[in-house]
Request: fold
Amino acid sequence: MVEYPNLFIGGEWVAPRDGGLLESIDPATGKPWASVAFGGPADIDRAVEAARKAFGSWSRKPGHERAALLRRFADLYEKTAPDLARLETRDNGRAFRESRADVGSHVTGYHWYASLADKFSGRTIPIDDQVHAFTTRRPIGVVGAITPWNVPLMAALWKLGPALATGCTVVLKPAEQTPVTSLELGKLFAQAGFPPGVVNIVPGWGKGGAGERLAAHPDVNKVAFTGEGATAKAILRTGGDTLKRFTFELGGKAPHIIFADANLDQALNAATGSAWALCGQSCALGSRVLVQRPIYQRVVDEFVRRSARVRVGAPLLETTHMGPQAHAEQLAKTLDYVAIGKRDGAELVAGGKRLTEGELACGYFIAPTVFANVSNQMRVAREEIFGPVAALIPFDDEDEALAIANDSHYGLTAGLWTQDVGRALRVSSRIEAGMIWVNTYRYIRWSTPYGGVKASGWGRENGVESLDAYLDTHTTIISKTGQFADPFAN
Ligand code: NAP
Reply:
């Protein structure tokens, strides 16, 4: 067992005041592998106090000094990235080859945020020759970051980057199932020389615990949340009274549209890859695969053939493509949806079963699953399953593809495959999604804004736009004459 007995508050490693220790389960074995400190509301209170105290000098620090610290962090992070990837895989079961690629990608991101730390500025606004008007941009204050279990490091780093670049301070509460790599970040921020209290890390329960307190805390200026829509609504109810700001990165049910004129081999690589990425536990999953009728059966056959090639197994092995579901509840949820799909009349053509042979016996493994002849009204096409389940939906023409794609309360990501440039422009301009990929999929970079429309969220992470969520704009108007007419003179 690996032990993390302390929380990271005010630059120190401290025992929880009203929490305790909890075991983190390795989803590949179903057994505990780490014992981790869990904080409660009192721990959040002292973390917020530390963050508030640090905010004054951190927010006034010249941007290039914050940038230097972010670069130092990036260098340390780069050295430790392979270990972090291994820990992330232990915690959430994601195949090591995926964790390594994801965890490694954030090095560039932190150099990129460092490069922005002294580049956000206000503007002067021409009005008339009586006044000089200008705006300044100031960090919003103390940020509560609440993250999910599927991409614990990524979700934390996407928030910490813009928050720290703009001069905010942060209290991070990772998901109860996957707290380990977030705590590891605390070590790196300390080693890089970030002042005490700028970053605080308090694992703990969401509902009724650390998460709820963070959302409610009157001295937290903003909550940056990634997770489910239902939780976002609960956070709004809890935190709304304080009128703090919120950004929400929520779920998705992405349409991945393949037209008959697509480069089919490439489209299939992307469609199968994105349907089963992260063992299906990705918000950007291309889980609704919309296929034009002339190629529908070929795509179904290829999905079935390729599902048999996916090596499901011990996630730390280099050869493993897909690890287990991250926890027992998620496995049960995915299996429930398999039953629902069958009941609703979808045709199960691959997978749909828990895998329990040999070394998989105690873990939460499931075979990549394919439903054919799905209608968009079925629950497997409407609800976010968060498991490796692809729903293959046929369509006849462009209008029908768009109608199906947009008939969803989600709007996070979408993909489309066609070799017709006009169609690519027409369809992509009408898809209701925050991120649209044409002839590629899950191409996500620090410099490109990411986030949803409709029920998929508020605000954007990544891109220069991400800074906006951590800055307030202040307007100053200075009279050039100093004259102010007496309104009651006559
Ligand atoms: P979740 O159940 O909503 O939990 C997310 C976080 O919120 C956890 O830290 C959780 O703590 C905390 N929480 C729960 N209830 C709370 C409350 N009442 N007040 C404050 N905090 C609370 O989500 P999840 O199951 O971990 O993650 C899966 C979801 O995240 C999916 O819907 C997925 O699509 C979405 N996601 C979106 C993106 C994106 O960028 N759009 C990226 C990744 C994931 P506990 O640990 O105690 O539950």
